[in-house]
Design brief:
- The chain is mostly helical and 162 residues long.
- It folds into 2 domains: 1-86, no CATH class; 105-162, no CATH class.
- It has helices at 2-15, 18-42, 51-62, 69-81, 88-101, 133-139, 145-156, and strands spanning 112-114, 121-124, 159-161.
- Helix 1 (2-15) crosses helix 3, helix 3 (51-62) runs parallel beside helix 5 and helix 4 runs antiparallel to helix 5 (88-101).
C-alpha cells in the first residue's frame, strides 16, 4: 500500500496533471479504507511490526484527507506515547498536518504549499511562534528548520521559501 502511495505521489509531483492527482487520490481512499480495518483489528502499528511497516502505516495516515483529522489525531496520540520508538520527523509531520486541518499554524515547519504560478517553488505554511520553531524541533530530536529545508531542496530539486 505504501509503495503504491509513494509511487503515485512521486508521479504527481513530477507531472502535476489532473490525471495523476486523481489516481493518487483514488489510491489514498482505497488505502484509507484498508488501513482503518487493519487499525480496528490490530490497533496502533508500532515498531514491533518492523520499521518499514510502521513507516507504511504513518504514510497512509499522513495522506488521509481533512475529514479524517479526528482519526489522524487519535493515531497521533498513540505515536506520541511511542516517541522513543518512532521517527520523530514522522510525528512532527503528522502534528503539523493535523494542526493545519484544524485551521491552526504548524509547530515544526514540515508542511509546504506550492506557490501559485511558480512551478517547482514551494513555501513553508505558517508556523506558530516562528522564533521558537527550532527549539521545538530540537526538543523532539530534529535538526534546525533551515537544514531540513535545505535537505529537501537538494533531495527533490525544488525551491522552498520560509
Amino acid at each position: 500500500m505504501a509503495q503504491e502511495d509513494q509511487s503515485l505521489r512521486n508521479n504527481y509531483l513530477k507531472t502535476l496533471t489532473d490525471k495523476s492527482f486523481e489516481k493518487m487520490r483514488e489510491k489514498d481512499e482505497e488505502n484509507r479504507e484498508k488501513f482503518k480495518k487493519i487499525f480496528k483489528e490490530r490497533g496502533y502499528i508500532s515498531s514491533k511490526y518492523g520499521k518499514d511497516v510502521q513507516l507504511a502505516a504513518f504514510l497512509i495516515v499522513q495522506h488521509m484527507p481533512k475529514e479524517e483529522h479526528l482519526f489522524m489525531k487519535k493515531y497521533l496520540s498513540l505515536m506520541k506515547e511511542d516517541l522513543e520508538n518512532i521517527n520523530t520527523l514522522n510525528y512532527a509531520q503528522l502534528v503539523d498536518r493535523v494542526r493545519i486541518y484544524e485551521g491552526k499554524k504548524q509547530l515544526y515547519g514540515t508542511q509546504f504549499e506550492l506557490v501559485e504560478g511558480r512551478e517547482g517553488v514551494y513555501k513553508v505554511k505558517e508556523i506558530y511562534d516562528f522564533k521558537r520553531v527550532n527549539e521545538r524541533r530540537e526538543k523532539i530530536g530534529l535538526g534546525k528548520l533551515e537544514e531540513y529545508v535545505e535537505e529537501l531542496v537538494k533531495e527533490r530539486d525544488i525551491k522552498i521559501t520560509l
